[in-house]
Design brief:
By secondary structure, the protein is an all-alpha fold. The protein has helices spanning 7-12, 16-29, 34-50, 54-67, 72-82. The longest helix is centred in the middle third of the chain and has 17 residues, at 34-50.
């Protein structure tokens, strides 16, 4: 599942507050679109990762995948967090920055 227009750039640049605001706005306009809620959970997970709170990040990623199982970014990030020994990687969000 591709990120909605405008979101990927915000994610790549770790602009979490702006990404969250974008998806909250889209959720308000399209409340029946569940993928928006999955993206919000993914964004929260990224924020938790940046602050070193990997347990909370995992919870948000699992939540995102429960809402939208096709969210590849959440799958990849959760896999990176779990790693071979369960230790997080340097940047599991896959950001290019």
């Amino acid at each position: 599942m591709s990120a909605p227009p405008g979101l990927q750039d915000l994610l790549d640049n770790k602009r979490w507050a702006q990404a969250r605001a974008l998806m909250q706005e889209r959720t308000a306009k399209e409340p029946a679109e569940r993928s928006h809620l999955a993206w919000l959970a993914y964004i929260k997970a990224c924020e938790f990762i940046d602050s070193g709170e990997t347990l909370q990040a995992r919870r948000e990623l699992v939540r995102a995948l429960a809402i939208e199982p096709a969210l590849a970014q959440a799958k990849a990030t959760l896999s990176a967090l779990n790693g071979p020994q369960g230790a997080p990687t340097a940047d599991p969000t896959g950001s290019r920055r």
